[in-house]
């Protein structure tokens, strides 16, 4: 995972040999097979008739037809991850509705996935976790996804740079199921996200616990204050908040004394590469007032273990 590898001497023939011995497997994860095409992956799919989890990472020759070849296992697959596959397009997901038990879909890094994909995804009524990071979707795509009324618990649209505040609003339109179920949301690296989107999220997402706004320069102090200090509001349930490199935040975005309910449930706060870091003197007071809170002053994603005083990247 951390040291990307490419198995340049393995081709489809190698996959054919592997498929002969994996008929009883329920989980398959393959990464870095630069010379394997859909024929090689399909041989695995034809062999594993009880497949529940299928994951392919960084496969430049994987095309849309691989999902067509999954019809035999579509009724059993619960988790499907096709990450950083450069040939994959929205058309690959056209028959996704035949996956009757699918709960997890990850197409992160597939930059040719466009607005048609959310329309196909919206037909999968069992879906709870969706990762569309770096997809070429717009506000139109988010509106189509919202119209599907899916019980999504975790949603990542990181680096979907064409999305705006309007798209976020349409995602939560008309009190859809996602308003009640969404717990983890990542809208990082989207330049057009502003305070208006944060207000929408905080108001509509009633179950939200983890929110990533990394590198969203349009987010200002007003959004942070709104997330901090409203008792009994949806935003008071936040447990993890990532503000890393939100350049629109001033050093005074978090000020003492803290309101009574500020950070009441927060367990992790990321403020790396913001002007807030310059106010290191307030962190000890914040941590004293909220002893279970970890404040990360570097650029970790959710969940590093150490606080600002003795931070070690893990």
From TrEMBL:
<dbReference type="InterPro" id="IPR057207">
    <property type="entry name" value="FBXL15_LRR"/>
</dbReference>
<dbReference type="InterPro" id="IPR006553">
    <property type="entry name" value="Leu-rich_rpt_Cys-con_subtyp"/>
</dbReference>
<feature type="domain" description="F-box/LRR-repeat protein 15-like leucin rich repeat">
    <location>
        <begin position="2"/>
        <end position="305"/>
    </location>
</feature>
<dbReference type="Pfam" id="PF25372">
    <property type="entry name" value="DUF7885"/>
</dbReference>
<dbReference type="GO" id="GO:0019005">
    <property type="term" value="C:SCF ubiquitin ligase complex"/>
</dbReference>
<dbReference type="GO" id="GO:0031146">
    <property type="term" value="P:SCF-dependent proteasomal ubiquitin-dependent protein catabolic process"/>
</dbReference>
<dbReference type="InterPro" id="IPR032675">
    <property type="entry name" value="LRR_dom_sf"/>
</dbReference>
<protein>
    <recommendedName>
        <fullName>F-box/LRR-repeat protein 15-like leucin rich repeat domain-containing protein</fullName>
    </recommendedName>
</protein>
């Amino acid at each position: 995972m951390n040291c990307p590898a490419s198995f340049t001497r393995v081709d489809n023939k190698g996959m054919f040999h592997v498929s002969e011995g994996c008929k009883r497997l329920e989980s398959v994860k393959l990464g870095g097979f630069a010379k394997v095409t859909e024929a090689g992956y399909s041989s695995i799919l034809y062999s594993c008739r009880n497949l529940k989890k299928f994951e392919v990472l960084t496969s430049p020759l994987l095309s849309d037809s691989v999902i067509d070849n999954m019809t035999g296992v579509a009724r059993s697959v619960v988790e499907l991850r096709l990450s950083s596959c450069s040939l994959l397009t929205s058309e690959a997901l056209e028959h996704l509705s035949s996956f009757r038990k699918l709960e997890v879909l990850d197409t992160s890094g597939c930059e040719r996935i466009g607005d048609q994909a959310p329309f196909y995804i919206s037909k999968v009524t069992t879906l709870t976790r969706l990762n569309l990071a770096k997809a070429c979707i717009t506000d139109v795509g988010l509106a189509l996804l919202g119209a599907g009324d899916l019980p999504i618990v975790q949603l990542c649209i990181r680096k979907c740079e064409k999305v705006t505040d309007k798209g976020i609003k349409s995602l939560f339109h008309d009190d859809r199921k996602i308003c009640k179920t969404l717990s983890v949301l990542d809208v990082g690296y989207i330049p057009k996200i502003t305070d208006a989107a944060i207000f929408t999220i905080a108001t509509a997402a009633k179950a939200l616990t983890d929110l990533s706004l990394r590198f969203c320069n349009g987010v200002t102090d007003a959004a942070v204050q709104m997330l901090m200090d409203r008792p009994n509001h949806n935003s008071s349930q936040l447990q993890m908040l990532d503000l890393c490199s939100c350049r629109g935040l001033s050093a005074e975005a978090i000020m003492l004394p803290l309101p009574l309910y500020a950070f009441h449930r927060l367990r992790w706060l990321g403020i790396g590469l913001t002007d807030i870091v310059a106010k290191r003197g307030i962190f000890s007071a914040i941590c004293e007032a909220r002893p279970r809170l970890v404040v990360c002053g570097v650029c970790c994603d959710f969940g590093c273990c150490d606080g600002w005083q003795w931070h070690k990247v893990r």
